[in-house]
Sequence to fold (589 residues):
Amino acid sequence: MGLESNQGTEREEDTAVISPQDPTLLIGSSLLATCSVHGDPPGATAEGLYWTLNGRRLPPELSRVLNASTLALALANLNGSRQQSGDNLVCHARDGSILAGSCLYVGLPPEKPVNISCWSKNMKDLTCRWTPGAHGETFLHTNYSLKYKLRWYGQDNTCEEYHTVGPHSCHIPKDLALFTPYEIWVEATNRLGSARSDVLTLDILDVVTTDPPPDVHVSRVGGLEDQLSVRWVSPPALKDFLFQAKYQIRYRVEDSVDWKVVDDVSNQTSCRLAGLKPGTVYFVQVRCNPFGIYGSKKAGIWKRSGPGGGACEPRGGEPSSGPVRRELKQFLGWLKKHAYCSNLSFRLYDQWRAWMQKSHKTRNQHRTRGSCPRADGARREVLPDKL
Amino acid sequence: LPPPAHLCLLTLLSPPLSSAAPTSPAEPISQAYSLALYMQKNTSMLLQTYLQYQGSPFSDSGFSAPELQLSSLPPATAFFKTWRALDDGERLSLAQGAFLALTQHLQLVRDDQSDLNPGSPILLAQLGTARLRAQGLLGNMAAIMTALGLPMPPEEDTLELVAFGASAFERKCRGYVVTREYGHWTDRAVRDLALLKAKYPA
Fold:
């Protein structure tokens, strides 16, 4: 091919060769290199030549003229390579022009990759993620390969779709068996060696999980200041599943790290959270856990909503959590005293609560008569009696 | 329709009968010129991006190593008088030869870089795009030659086998020379095509 170095306009073409070419070295090791010049016409000399490493001129005491046409270099205690394409060690002519070069690859062998975790979202594919085992960098380009095989039979397979959920991940799209264990591991290789992670054994069914429910909305409940309504949509993948789903909600106040969890949301797609601090920002998440004979032990993935918050109550049924029950008792007590209502409904309850909160604020205890709204919006005086 | 008008319509519909005279080269020259101008806008970015990925001294600001050359790439520089006096055939033939060599070298550099700098999609994409544009320009120049009735130069393999054994440093240098010369030849193509544009106005 002829990569040449033309010295100005003179006919003579000096070429040089550095040895070794492209060496791979451990961090901290030493290197002895030579730059040999071949002049045409002969007479080229090693006098005046100098070395640079990554653009910086090396101190003259590291160089030595070996013979008329060879300049030597002794480097000790090498640092890790500055770029993955290799450190540039260059031999320059007296006028600064490049005569020859060699790329140095200095680094460490890879460490065992760790923390392999895998999941399947549809019982047909598998996505895995791992962490490179590194107490810091290896300085060399490291190649990762995810491998898998049936535990008791068959050959090793290699995953081919990388970087699907981050830099250290791989996706196996098909040809996976259910109800039988797989062995999965990751191999890391670079110029200095390779390392293999521990083997993870799993059955695809054990790691089936669901995407979070889409469209989680949290909203206030009318004028109430300590309740929120959470609504979501059932994840579309659910209809293909062989198992059912149970939802879970968790919520926390903005500046806290402690989540409160509402476990038993069964398969409704809405929930009311109560007993919250008024005037605070809450974060709410909803997730869908697989459940049933084919259900896995792996929990679903949380889906965030915007700031909002609350704890769940089933609509129209018996309120089960503590604070609501207490309040309901208060309400009924108040009703007994002050009003008579044939239609006891949550709507009435909400109105009462909103009114209670307002009156609390103004520090006025209004002992007025309550009234029951009728379906047509007209109000009717309430007489104490039936309750 | 009255007969004379009918005849007129027929004449308009039938193509010109002459096949010996070449078609006007103005259109393909104009297209090639636009493409070369467009390519010229990106050549320095390609060179800079390439150098960034090779590390120092290549990535140092203002890096220049004119002493590095490739014998498999024709030089873009020429004496002005000689260049000005080239006839159409020679002018286009030299440019074609250069861009043909460049498409092959750009492919080689891209392959080298996917090995030296794996995981650098921006650089690889730019090298790929440069090669495609060079190929486009080759097509446009072929159209000009056809329009001028000139013979097409044969397509040659410009890379010798010895290119495959290059060391990492040699490959870095090679890519520098290729991206540099791609810029020089694009600048020259703009000048060549401007001359032709003036010579064969639309």
About this structure: The interface with chain A takes residues 53-60, 65, 67-72, 116-119, 159-160, 162-163, 166-170, 172-174, 177 of chain B (CB under 8 Å). Confidence is low (pLDDT under 50) at residues 5-20 of chain B. The CA atoms of residues 10 and 20 of chain B lie 23 Å apart. Residues 168-199 of chain B form the longest helix (32 residues).
